[in-house]
């Protein structure tokens, strides 16, 4: 069976997943190589064991996409089980959930003609004979029962409390002896049960490797078997903890690699909800994971283009409405790429997860649809404010001070917002703006200048290499506050340039902003756009 390339979309369990836009294939190949080697090393040790890895990323970073595609790739070379822990959260015990998925998914890969009747029964009834003993142990551990609070009647199979003895005198020595005997018996039954269960799982994995069904026979299947446990951080605290304990003690089986994908910080919160805020959840998790792997999140233009509808940028639509997206002034085919690249840079600048970046892009595109005719919107300002409104409201409230009469200044005691062109390739966009501005013609919101002054404006070319966002926002504020008050003739004098020597970057920026009609939208227009846009729910 031919595997789908990560560059292609794929259907898994009747759900269509798009092509890989985050270079996750590289992560999958690296992890497979390392985990196969480490699992083999564990199988050769005297104390054989499974290998457990925690794949960590924030919610919305594409963990489920990653592990599902990775699992799909592995199926052709290894036994694979995928478990959505959250969807099984309603069950009383995660052990039952895991066993059911192992049974169903691995049996599906075995050529049934190689199974005797007894073996079929053994695999189908996996764990039934020993589950009561195992579950009883977990109930005692997580149900709040303490053996010292239970007294055993020698002449009865039931355990009763002193209050039910009708003031009968208890022989505490006999009671303690009975309790000890019962405890050893339960412990022995538990160990036997776990050993039996592990043996059945190992045999099921072996059959999946050595006796695969048609189609899988064409590949050389081998150890380890991969068990993926996804969405554990979303589960009930007791369920999540029981799952971790089961992984550690029940499913610690040689030849297994267990991949637990979580937002690990949220999983720590889940654990603290059970054990208290002072509990060291980080140290607790170290008991269960042999290693951790963090999925880097880098937003790309192609990711946004694959998941968002950019048709609003159709040139005819923008031209017919005489709308300019300053400083992205190109009316060519690359406008979509320019805007998607800008959104990607802002998203990475604010460390957004892919899902959040897609939400930001969709809302920005909605805001463009709401812009009136013959308007120029500073798309950089709008995008930054929209991003902060959605994901960092305190910083949004602070940044709105640019619309006040006083000069906008960054107060380091109020915000830690990184205003730097190092995080945002501002010079690139300003340079492209200058190039595009020379080609614009017939835009109704352009300031009417004499030809010689227009030529003079376009003669100034700076690379804006020293301009950060603070300077950009200050220039934007000056243009809004000045409104349409400009000198004709003597256009450049409006911005403090005396016509001699070099011109500053802020002076030139203000001149272009004004010439291209950035002041055609007021401060309230920007705020209203953001408010209206955020009334739309994301699909």
Structure description:
The protein has about 550 residues and is an alpha/beta fold. It folds into two domains: about 210 residues, P-loop containing nucleotide triphosphate hydrolases (Rossmann fold); about 230 residues, no CATH class. About 50% of the residues lie in helices and about 10% in strands. The protein is built from 20 helices and eleven strands.
Give the secondary structure arrangement, pairings included:
Elements: E1 10-12, E2 15-17, H1 24-43, E3 51-56, H2 63-74, E4 80-84, H3 94-107, H4 117-124, H5 131-142, E5 151-152, E6 159-160, H6 172-210, E7 225-230, H7 237-249, E8 256-262, H8 264-275, H9 281-286, E9 291-294, H10 301-307, H11 315-320, E10 323-326, H12 335-349, H13 354-369, E11 375-378, H14 379-391, H15 393-399, H16 426-437, H17 451-459, H18 469-482, H19 505-515, H20 523-533
Parallel strand pairs: 3-8, 3-9, 4-7, 7-8, 10-11
Antiparallel strand pairs: 1-2, 5-6
Helix pairs in contact: 1-2, 3-6, 5-6, 7-8, 10-12, 12-13, 12-14, 13-20, 14-15, 18-19
Give the tags.
Rossmann fold; five-stranded parallel sheet; alpha/beta; 20 helices; 539 residues; two-stranded antiparallel ribbon; 48% helix
Summarize the structure.
The chain has helices at residues 24-43, 63-74, 94-107, 117-124, 131-142, 172-210, 237-249, 264-275, 281-286, 301-307, 315-320, 335-349, 354-369, 379-391, 393-399, 426-437, 451-459, 469-482, 505-515, 523-533, and strands at 10-12, 15-17, 51-56, 80-84, 151-152, 159-160, 225-230, 256-262, 291-294, 323-326, 375-378.
């Amino acid at each position: 069976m031919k595997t789908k390339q990560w560059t292609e979309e794929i259907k898994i369990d009747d759900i269509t997943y798009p092509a890989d836009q985050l270079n996750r294939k590289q992560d999958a190949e690296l992890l497979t190589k390392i985990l196969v080697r480490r699992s083999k090393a564990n199988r050769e040790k005297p104390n054989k064991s499974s290998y457990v890895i925690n794949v960590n990323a924030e919610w919305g970073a594409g963990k489920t996409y990653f592990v599902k595609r990775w699992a799909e790739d592995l199926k052709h070379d290894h036994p694979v089980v995928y478990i959505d822990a959250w969807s099984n959260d309603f069950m009383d015990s995660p052990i039952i959930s895991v066993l059911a998925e192992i049974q169903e998914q691995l049996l599906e890969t075995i050529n049934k003609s190689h199974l005797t009747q007894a073996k079929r029964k053994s695999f189908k009834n996996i764990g039934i004979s020993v589950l009561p003993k195992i579950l009883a142990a977990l109930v005692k551990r997580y149900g709040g029962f303490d053996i010292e609070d239970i007294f055993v009647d020698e002449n009865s199979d039931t355990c009763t409390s002193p209050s039910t003895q009708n003031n009968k005198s208890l022989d505490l020595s006999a009671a303690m002896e009975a309790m000890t005997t019962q405890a050893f018996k339960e412990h022995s039954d538990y160990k036997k049960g776990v050993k039996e269960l592990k043996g059945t799982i190992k045999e099921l994995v072996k059959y999946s490797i050595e006796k695969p069904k048609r189609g899988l026979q064409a590949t050389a299947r081998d150890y380890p078997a991969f068990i993926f446990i996804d969405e554990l951080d979303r589960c009930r605290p007791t369920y999540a903890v029981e799952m971790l304990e089961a992984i550690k003690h029940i499913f610690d089986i040689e030849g297994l690699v267990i991949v637990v994908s979580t937002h690990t910080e949220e999983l720590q919160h889940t654990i603290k909800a059970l054990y208290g805020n002072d509990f060291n959840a980080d140290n607790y998790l170290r008991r269960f994971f042999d290693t951790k792997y963090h999925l880097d999140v880098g937003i790309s233009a192609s990711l946004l283009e694959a998941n968002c509808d950019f048709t609003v940028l159709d040139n005819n639509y923008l031209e017919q409405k005489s709308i300019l997206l300053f400083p992205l002034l190109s009316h060519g085919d690359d406008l979509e790429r320019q805007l998607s690249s800008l959104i990607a840079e802002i998203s990475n600048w604010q460390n957004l997860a892919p899902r959040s970046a897609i939400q930001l892009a969709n809302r920005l595109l909605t805001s463009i649809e709401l812009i009136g005719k013959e308007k120029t919107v500073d798309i950089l300002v709008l995008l930054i404010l929209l991003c902060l409104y959605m994901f960092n409201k305190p910083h949004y409230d602070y940044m709105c001070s640019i619309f006040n009469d006083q000069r906008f200044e960054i107060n380091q005691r109020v915000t830690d917002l990184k205003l730097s062109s190092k995080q945002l390739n501002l010079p690139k966009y300003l340079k492209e703006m200058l190039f595009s501005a020379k080609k614009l013609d017939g835009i109704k919101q352009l300031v009417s200048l004499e030809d010689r002054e227009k030529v003079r404006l376009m003669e100034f070319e700076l690379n804006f290499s020293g301009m950060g966002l603070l300077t950009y926002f200050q220039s934007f504020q000056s243009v809004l506050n000045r409104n349409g008050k400009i000198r004709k003739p003597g256009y450049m004098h409006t911005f403090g340039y005396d016509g001699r020597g070099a011109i500053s970057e802020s002076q030139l920026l203000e001149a272009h902003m004004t010439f291209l009609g950035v002041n055609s939208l007021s401060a309230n227009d920007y705020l209203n756009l953001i408010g209206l846009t955020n009334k739309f729910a994301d699909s």
